[in-house]
Every structure is written in structure tokens, then in C-alpha cells.
């Protein structure tokens, strides 16, 4: 590979093809970085350069030199090809993905193979949670725990993520508010944002106008913002103080929210641990009230 090609690859496919072709002639350090780029292309869009370097077993400076050897100004310019590919995948119509699912189901081994693929990809999505959030998860918990009120928002397919956080956190904290935006009331709900509050907003590509509106309003109100999203350059991530990342890969026609729900479960676990005995007392009171009001069916003996 020449030190400075005339121009860098213009698409991710062109870049990956060049890396595969040049791989045998690269230095050992470059091979380590290139191997990770080829094997984990989606992770490049989600992880920082330091995280990519650590996972690849190389120094961050190696990734910078690798990028420059390909004709890029630096790592960020190379990484943008991976980011843009993630955006394009998110913009792909669901109907186009659905056609592939239907075609695959027509094969004799279709249903069993489809389930196996789903489980395998979910394993990958969940494994990525630890790699992407080990450092930022405690920071997000600090931001939320310190706020007088926590507001949470997620729209359309991300509503289950927001609702799960609101419901579980609300079991031991009363000052948690779910922003719903029902019947065009979003602007009214955003008036409740206070300058010391925190806002957790979830969203993935294609990104909704509402999620960005919440994040922008939170910044304008002086809130701390925690973004739960699929990319460090997602619109809500660019507004955030802390970004938590989750992968939405799925062999089905629709992006998966499994790792997003897992992320908020882990986040609430951190918040519970911070509150300690106080949280336990509130949980006991909440459970008792639910039992007394008949929220659950009575347990029957065997």
C-alpha cells in the first residue's frame, strides 16, 4: 500500500475491497487494525477510535497512520464511510427488507434458519453493549441520579425503550416523567423541563423529529441530556452530555430494540445501586401497594 494514494476510497464497499486486496502486504500493526475493520464494520460507526484500537489490539496512532496511508486526512474521515453506511441502512425502506425475509422463508430450512440468525445477531448486539458503554454507563447514571427530575422520551418504535425505563425506575423514584407527545401535546410537555433536570431520549435511524425536538428543548432549558442511540453522530447524540450506544441489527425487516431495552435495564440497575437502602424501602412500599390494590393475580399453591 502506498503511503499517500491519489485519492481515498469514496464508498465503504470500495474501502473494504481495497483493504482485503492489500491485506497480505500490510505491516503486522496495520493488519491488526484492518482485520477489525473488515470483521466488525458496524462497530466502527458506533465506537470511539480508542475503543476500536483496544478491540483491534493496536495503538490509536496506528489507526491514524492507516487512514492516512489510504489517502484520508485522518481517522475521522475514514470512519465517516462506516457512519454513512449505517445511515443508509437505516434509511432503507422496511418493505425492501421485508421482501428478503419473505424470500428466505420460502426455503425448506427457512423458519429454523431465520430463528438461528435472529439469536446469533442478538448475541452480537448484546456483546456490543459492554464494549461500547463500559465507561459511559456510570457517567449516565451519575447525571440521572443527580437531577431533581428525570424526563424520558422515545417515539414510535423507541417508545417501549422509554416506557421500560420510566416504569422500572419509577418503582423506586417518584420524580420520573414520561414524555409522550399524545394528541400534539409535545410542546406542552416540554414546558415542564427545568434547568437542573435530566432528559433521557432514545432513538435510532431513521431518526424522528420528535426525539431531536426533545433533545434540543432540553439543551435550551439547561437540562443534562443522555442519548440512547445507535451512533455517536446521531442527531440526539450531538445534543447529549452522555451517549449510550446500542446496536439495532436484525435479520428481520425491522431494526431490533432488544439491546436498547437491555441498556435501560442495566442503567436502572446502576441507579438502584446508587440509591441503596432508600431505594429498597421505596420498592417495598410500591410492591405492597400493588398487592393491596389487586394489581397482580393472587398466587395459588401447587
UniProtKB/TrEMBL annotation:
Pfam family, one: HTH_6
CDD domains named among the record's database cross-references: SIS_RpiR (cd05013)
InterPro entries, sorted: Homeodomain-like_sf, HTH_RpiR, RpiR-like, RpiR-like_SIS, SIS_dom, SIS_dom_sf, WH-like_DNA-bd_sf
Keywords for the protein's UniProt record, in alphabetical order: DNA-binding, Glycolysis, Transcription, Transcription regulation
Single Gene Ontology MF annotation: DNA-binding transcription factor activity
SUPFAM superfamilies: Homeodomain-like, SIS domain
GO biological process: glycolytic process
Limits of the SIS domain: 140-277
Span of domain HTH rpiR-type: 13-89
PANTHER family: GLUCOKINASE (PTHR30514), RPIR-FAMILY TRANSCRIPTIONAL REGULATOR (PTHR30514:SF18)
Identification of the protein by name: RpiR family transcriptional regulator
Origin organism lineage: Bacteria, Pseudomonadati, Pseudomonadota, Betaproteobacteria, Burkholderiales
